[in-house]
């Protein structure tokens, strides 16, 4: 019952925490220069929208009535808390508001178009990261100090030293035919080929897989070293504990001591990173998406910030905030699954 009460309290705490996060960010975007009113003024004056610099002369040339009309159109004539309440309730976290950057599309429609790309890459990268790093960390711990451990450490640290975006550029140079004499195995960019819609379902799956290989490798390399070494060091620490020596002293096999006792406790630190999985999976990596020209959530969030597309930015912020808060609950739940002896104090 203590665990149930704890999870209920944590779930209820999500609500005020979410309101606090969004309230602060909503207040900040009200005072950031270059907002929708200024963007509209630039368009009226033919200054090129968000791509041009707003001059003091352009602002001065707009009459007071015109500026008030623009502020009323965007809702800036209302009190702050009334605007926030309208965004939170009436506009459903702003997802029903029309995007400033993409005409005739709501924030949710814009986000929904990019979400599948980030979801596919995030899930694939997650499965590969944990599916490779945990077994590799276990193997390194069981062969600590061996030639395999040293050789794999060189590979792991080399991968960790190379930034993901730089690794992606090297992969494009080697395997995308950008350099004469090298391999042309994978597409240069994008998520689908031009003839994707005309392909059968099996051909579509193969086409998507070919576009995913290189970006997914870049997704994985970022967490590869951290997860591998965390798994290795955690298992080594558990193997040195008294309860493992007790199992061996009572005649238990090494296999039973490691796989039946030490491994479960060694997985507890790994579960800590699960909390951030949902948000990272949703947002993705901006630099990787830019290198491979992927229409994902990370690139969309940067475009929304630079272009002052507040409905899309706040929509992404609200969704990632909810996912991050729920991810913390997922971490606690993972603790309980890994070690049922864990209890949570009131």
Please provide a written account of the structure.
This protein folds into two domains: 58 residues, no CATH class; 231 residues, MetI-like fold, CATH 1.10.3720. The protein is an all-alpha fold and 346 residues long. The protein has 16 helices and no strands. The protein starts with a helix and ends in an 8-residue tail after the last helix.
Overview in brief:
The chain has 346 residues and is mainly alpha-helical. 71% of the residues lie in helices and 0% in strands.
Q: Given this structure, which CATH class of the largest domain is correct?
A: Mainly Alpha
Strand-pairing-aware structural class: mainly alpha
Could you say how many structural domains there are in total?
A: 2
Portion in helices: over 70%
Main sheet makeup:
none
* Proportion of residues in extended strands: under 5%
CATH fold call of the largest domain: MetI-like fold
Unreliable stretches: 48-58
Distance between the termini: 11 Å
Principal-axis shape equals globular
CATH superfamily of the largest domain: MetI-like
Count of beta strands: 0
pLDDT average, as an integer? 81
| Radius of gyration over all CA atoms, rounded | 25 Å
Instruction: Count the DSSP helices.
Output: 16
CATH architecture of the largest domain: Orthogonal Bundle
Helix-strand sequence: HHHHHHHHHHHHHHHH
What are the key terms here?
346 residues, mainly alpha, MetI-like fold, 2 domains, 71% helix
Write the layout of secondary structure elements.
Blueprint: H1 2-31, H2 36-44, H3 56-60, H4 64-73, H5 80-90, H6 107-142, H7 147-161, H8 164-175, H9 201-239, H10 242-249, H11 254-266, H12 268-272, H13 277-283, H14 286-291, H15 297-306, H16 310-338
